[in-house]
Amino acid sequence: MDRPSGVADLVATLRGGGYLADRGLATAVFVALSLDRPLLLEGEPGVGKTEIAKVLAAVLGRRLIRLQCYEGIDTAQALYEWDHARQLLQVRALAEGGETSVKALFGPEFLLERPLLAAVRAGGRAVLLVDEIDRADDEFEAFLLELLSDFQITVPEVGTIAAASPPLVVLTSNRTRELHDALKRRCLYHWIDYPDVEREVEIVLLRQPGVDAALARTVVGAVHRLRELDLAKPPGVAETVDWARTLSFLGEPALTVDAADLTLGSVLKEREDLELARENLDEITSGA
Amino acid sequence: MSGGPVRVLVGFGRALRARGIAVGAGDVETFCAAMVPLDPTDLDDLYWAGRTTLVTRRDDLAVYDEVFRAYFLGEDTAGPPRPRPRTAVAAGVLEVPAVDPPPSAADPGDETRLGLVASDAEALRHRSFAACTPDELRALRRIMAQMRLTPPRRRTRRTQRATRGRVPDLRRTVRDSLRLHGEPVPLRRKRRRVKPRPLVLILDVSGSMADYSRALLQFAHSARHSARRVEVFCFGTRLTRITVALQRRSPDEALARAAALVVDWEGGTRIGASIEEFVRGRGRRGGCRGAVVVICSDGLDRGDPDTLATAMERLTRQCHRVVWMNPHRGDDPGYRPLTTGMMVAQPHVDLLLSGHDLSSLAELAVLLPELG
């Protein structure tokens, strides 16, 4: 598939790839594709920010190029690096053979491609996922802004490499710090919320077809009640899927208080949260 | 798209701007461009395309929804006005002494005035903020503005070249060698870069701290401008982030803005709940990872001590160091915590200072770099 013809078409295509996007997210992606603009996704952990990029790459038949950001990431890890070991070997070989020129040593074959260079080279045939951009420092953010504005990279020894058509860029952030306004301006913005009960049931069933529909419904109901509690780490959609899968794997037909107590570790990963949930187990599973 | 529809979309952008959302001309252009492949008569398309192109932060979404309803659906959203006692009350309560404009060199009366300030400084160093007159507070403020806070530094993953050191920089060595066609060059070296840790100030502005909160807020303002990564929060019964408000250079303007944000000036105290709010919000998202957190409070908590204990324990796990400044501690070296809040919090505090006068704030400035 090259380019979706409309929002409804994109929703259907994403569903084919195993991702249930709501109208808002689909519109944001569709606009990003039509206008060639990067898309900045924010939302609670576990709502599928990274997943949408992966699925988009799959259904659009594009290559997924992922850049995981972390504190201290620099251009050598994001852009390109010279393959010094190969250059040295080449020097040796050429020295024995005779004529050698420095120019030949800095040819494209000695350039180690890192995600951003790879994305510029692949252009419209790629989906570039810049994951957790808020973890990188602001210098890197400024550098990224420059790259996102014209999709070209200048390697002094080689020249300027430009993308024929820009790749689809998806940035995700967990809001550990405020991103720079200039970067936000450059991007389309979408906040992904937790899905409503109906959609989340659908997601569970789509991801784990083996799970009984009734069980899925009770699990989703319980997770929604958990999110209303004052938890340090509210469970994401991935946790819902995990919980349903765990219960199904254990052969539990329904979400009883006992079953919930035993498997609570697949949804809540903090000791205080577990304690709080255990105090309210009756209420949480009451929908079951 | 042209003519009528564009005018409608531009008008929508203007309506958003009127409600305080920063919408640039470029954003409206993007919005119009986004509507081209979509259906401009479909409200869903309008809503979502506008939301993705015109809004850049989650906090603005509610306002966007409201403006959208009013603009496109003609719904009257005026309704009962939201209670905003903040500005009216706070402005009255917070009487920040104004700072005189910095004396210019041309002014003949300057020397004397400067001398006055300097001698004032000596006298004021050990006077408790609670005992200061507005004039003295004003003088203090000028001295505070000179104070530089240097948070401790930590090593980052990035490296920089060094003239000596144990770690060889192989990449640079080889690169330099290649410039000479593979001739060996002296070994280059590198070392890890260092970077200041973020600083988080959490100030108690409740009734029991009334004598100190103005001075501390002034201190926060100068801290905000002396170090690079500083976040400032206030609390009484609830937590308010005032970092952005303090960004203003002029202290008067900055403090007035901060005061307008805080709803609970000189009211009750819920330290536990406020720290917990911080830990759950900013802290959970990693906002204070590796940071030095400075809490200024007397520890008079009307909430449940358990809440404070849990919140403090969490806080110590999320950040690097916790400093507590308790003005009521005063100069007494044999101070024992008397309030429940203080007793509960103390085991989780790395450094306890007083913060009741200028010299104790200077003490913080001196001790801060050593908390690495």
From TrEMBL, chain A:
InterPro entries (UniProt xref): AAA+_ATPase, ATPase_dyneun-rel_AAA, CbbQ/NirQ/NorQ/GpvN, P-loop_NTPase
Residues making up the signal peptide according to the UniProt record: none
Gene3D superfamilies in the record: P-loop containing nucleotide triphosphate hydrolases (3.40.50.300)
Segments forming domain AAA+ ATPase: 35-198
Name of the protein: ATPase
CDD domains: AAA
Coiled coil: none
MF term (GO), any: ATP hydrolysis activity
SMART domains found in the cross-reference section: AAA (SM00382)
Classification via Pfam families: AAA_5
UniProtKB/TrEMBL annotation, chain B:
Domain VWFA, first and last residues per copy: 196-370
Annotated signal peptide: none
CDD domains: vWFA
Protein's name according to its UniProt entry: VWFA domain-containing protein
